[in-house]
């Protein structure tokens, strides 16, 4: 009986750890950057981002090079979610929480400083939360496995 209990407890603990891992692995970034290789404004924006985002973990920033497969699709969906006219959009474009910054310059720097400062102090939603990214639902699978593990534990504890 004791061996079954220890085994069942180990299964449940490992399943709950898997749920935590699945949730942390799917954390969405608070800063999403679209850039192009060889773009001078993009290089300026990258320098600015490195200086501003030192308080954020590396996973908080996601960069998309626009020539990479799928990047333009994500950009167009974010532009629609933020109600940006794609004919006036330019590169670089940075999405921070509920704010977006197009291009590089002094006014863009101030907007970016303000947006990242707000994210660091009070938190902000991920821009990618505004669009549905198709991916495998690992969180749901991990939660289901945890529930099944708990049921198995209860069943094992019922028999001597």
Task: Write up this protein.
This protein has 160 residues and is an alpha+beta fold. The protein folds into two domains: 1-26 and 135-160; 27-134, 3-Layer(aba) Sandwich (Glutaredoxin). The protein is 54% helix and 11% strand. It has five helices and four strands. The chain has helices spanning 2-25, 40-52, 71-81, 106-122, 138-158; strands at 31-35, 61-65, 93-96, 99-102. Strands 2-1-3-4 form a four-stranded mixed β-sheet, sandwiched between helices. Helix 2 links the parallel strand 1 (31-35) and strand 2 (61-65). Helix 2 packs parallel to helix 4 (106-122). The radius of gyration is 22 Å and the shape is elongated. It starts with a helix and ends with a helix.
Strand content: 5-15%
Overall domain count: 2
State the share of residues found in helices, binned by percent: 40-55%
CATH architectural type of the largest domain: 3-Layer(aba) Sandwich
Largest sheet, in brief, is:
4 strands, mixed
Compressed to H and E, one letter per element, the order equals HEHEHEEHH
Low-confidence stretches: 18-26
Lateral strand order in the biggest sheet: 2-1-3-4
Radius of gyration: 22 Å
> Roughly what is the average pLDDT, rounded to an integer?
81
End-to-end Cα distance, whole Å, is 6 Å
Coarse shape: elongated
Count of strand segments? 4
Strand-pairing-aware structural class: alpha+beta
* CATH class designation of the largest domain: Alpha Beta
């Amino acid at each position: 009986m004791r061996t079954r209990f220890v085994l069942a407890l180990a299964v449940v603990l490992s399943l709950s750890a898997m749920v935590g891992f699945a949730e942390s692995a799917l954390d969405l970034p608070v800063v999403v950057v679209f850039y192009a290789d060889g773009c001078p404004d993009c290089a300026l924006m990258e320098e600015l981002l490195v200086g501003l985002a030192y308080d954020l973990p590396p996973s908080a920033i996601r960069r998309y090079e626009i020539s990479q497969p799928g990047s333009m699709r994500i950009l167009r969906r974010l532009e629609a979610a933020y109600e940006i006219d794609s004919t006036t959009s330019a590169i670089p474009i940075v999405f921070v929480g509920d704010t977006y910054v197009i291009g590089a310059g002094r006014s863009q720097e101030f907007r970016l400083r303000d947006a990242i400062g707000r994210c660091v102090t009070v938190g902000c939603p991920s821009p990618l939360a505004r669009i549905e990214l198709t991916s495998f639902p690992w969180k749901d699978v991990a939660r289901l496995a945890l529930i099944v593990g708990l049921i198995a534990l209860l069943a094992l504890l019922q028999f001597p």
